[in-house]
Amino acid sequence: MVLWQKSLDREEALEHMVEEDTDNDGFVSWEEYLKQMFSFNTEELQNLEDSIRDAEEMTEEMRDNAGTLKMVKEDRRKFQGADLDKDGKLSKEEYVAFFFPQNFPYMHKYELETYLEEKDKNHDGMISLEEFLPGEGNVEADKAAQTNFEDLDKNGDKQLSLDELKTYIVPDVDEIAEEEAIHLIEIADADKDDKLSFEEIAAKTKEFVGNSLTDYGRSLHEEL
């Protein structure tokens, strides 16, 4: 199922790549991505950065633009990380890694850096419980987050390092898929032979279709 999911991820990423490869050369440059995703070219982006930096007072529009610039910065960092040969553009394989970084271990650090930049308010390189909480005033959500925090805090120092955060930000998809596969076999294996026949899968179509983790169900339903 892991291979199935990664195949679906690759297919989805390459569909997006076709849209962003505006010169049809088989690669996506940063300029192409920037224009397609944010409707800016690099000169316009620089002008926007300059206007925000030099503004005496921030307007609502400027705040919105500042948020956009933050997303551009995060995507730029991830783009550069995916660009393994450093030629300034992404090949098909590089683009898939850019689009689905969780599937590529060498991209995990960029996901972690993005999370840390967003959450680490005091810039100490760690995440405290206060920084980890959703902060939306939802008591139940805060309780769930606190439980997650305590589970992740392996050394009990009341803060989370990047190593401790890794399983939360970029969980092991192979491990998750294995757990999901075991679960699906348990509920569908009517004759308890540890194998699934076509008939057993068909009898539990609803459970497979509802499997949001692997997306296996959607494809299976289309075939059935």
UniProtKB/TrEMBL annotation:
Q: Keywords, A to Z? A: Calcium, Coiled coil
Q: Nucleotidyltransferase: is it a keyword of this entry? A: no
Annotated ranges, domain EF-hand: 8-43, 70-105, 140-175, 176-211
One Pfam family hit: EF-hand_7
Spell out the molecular function terms from Gene Ontology: calcium ion binding
Report the superkingdom from the record: Eukaryota
What's the name of the protein? EF-hand domain-containing protein
Q: What is the species listed in this Swiss-Prot or TrEMBL entry?
A: Pomacea canaliculata (Golden apple snail)
